[in-house]
Amino acid sequence: MTDSTLPEGLHPQTLAVRQAIARSQYGEHSEALYLTSSYVQPDAATSARRFANEEAGYTYTRTSNPTVTSFERRLAGLEGTEAAIGTATGMAAIALMVYGLLKSGDHIVASRSMFGSTIKLLGSELARFGVETTFVSQTDAAEWRAAIRPGQTRLLFAETPTNPLTDVCDIATLADLAHNADAWLAVDNSFVTPALQQASRFGADLVIHSGTKFLEGQGRVLAGAVCGPRAIVEDKLGAFIRSAGFNLSPFNAWVVLKGMETLFVRMREQSRNALELAQWLQQQPQVARVHYPGLPSHPQHELAMRQQSGLGGAVLAFDVRGDSPEALRHNAFHVIDQCRVISKTTNLGDTKSTISHPASTSHGRLSEAQRQAAGVGQGLIRISVGLEYPKDIQDDVLRGLGGLS
Ligand SMILES: Cc1ncc(COP(=O)(O)O)c(C=O)c1O
């Protein structure tokens, strides 16, 4: 399938709207959805060459699909990487990366503040295959350096900002550490997306996405991707996915492809709304602490502004006050339960604001020790801020906060 005939050097904001494969013979303006499992071959000899990778051409959707190709080219254009590969979910992207690149005996250094399922996958599931992970502080480069095992560490992996505490790591510093150890740096960019942060520009080798979140933008489908150099993404991961089948469905690829067209406006507007909510929350007496990279009180505020195009992103977290774990949990549940506009659901990145209690949902499967290490307490609430009128969201949160003693 040929590329569209766009000129070189276009800004990512243009690529978000325009990058795709060429139109079909019908000249459709909106990108076509190729909902097909397999492709009819002109003859057996051509089929044999395509299956042997001696000739370009689609054969079976577990190997590739034109709509998925459009999604991959658009995302790679946005991230500024040579290639991208679509996966069924964000977790499938992480699984594809680790199972496709690592082998028994290899070692990973990862942030201990990552999304709960990522910690579970790296810390428990992967260990059964002889790949060990050392978890370190998101923000202390000395801990990352000390954890690296020369000759054995193959991957450094961080998420920035983290889910749910929005801790920010210095991508360029971690990239230097990884490259000096002959390892790769992978960054999960789901929270701020390439609209705000091109992780590869700061030295990340691989960029992970849960496309389920802001790339898609309206909470309709699950999707994921790994972005990076062709030699890794196409040659290694492309070969592995053909056997492993972690693929993104064409329908989901199409929904995310269309979602990406509004990514830049959504990220800017939702970041503005999140900053307004974070500033308001800071003034509420029932709130002990607000975690949001756009606030000057955030410990990595300046770094975040440098890495994230001057914006904090659309996710924030805050701790309600309480004098015991039981009181904290009770107060957090009370605030969540009083919401009548914000959706009580764990997904994030939607145009609809969502509210959740990380300790009992996204981080509920972790042990108490893992949760404490990740800084996720019982009084913590996460809000992914959408496109509603900001004052309506403040009033919704105030309904619950106002009832706390
Ligand atoms: C930062 C981050 N990475 C990965 C994932 C996993 O994505 P998915 O739900 O698409 O598997 C999530 C989900 O919340 C996430 O927040």
TrEMBL record:
* Keyword RNA-binding found: no
Q: Where is the composition biased (Polar residues)?
A: 350-364
Q: Which domain of life is it from?
A: Bacteria
Name the cofactor(s). pyridoxal 5'-phosphate
Protein name per the record: O-succinylhomoserine sulfhydrylase
Q: What class of enzyme is it?
A: transferase
This protein's species is Corticibacter populi
Per the record, the similarity remark reads: Belongs to the trans-sulfuration enzymes family. MetZ subfamily.
Any one Gene Ontology cellular component term annotated for this protein: cytoplasm
Gene giving rise to this polypeptide: metZ
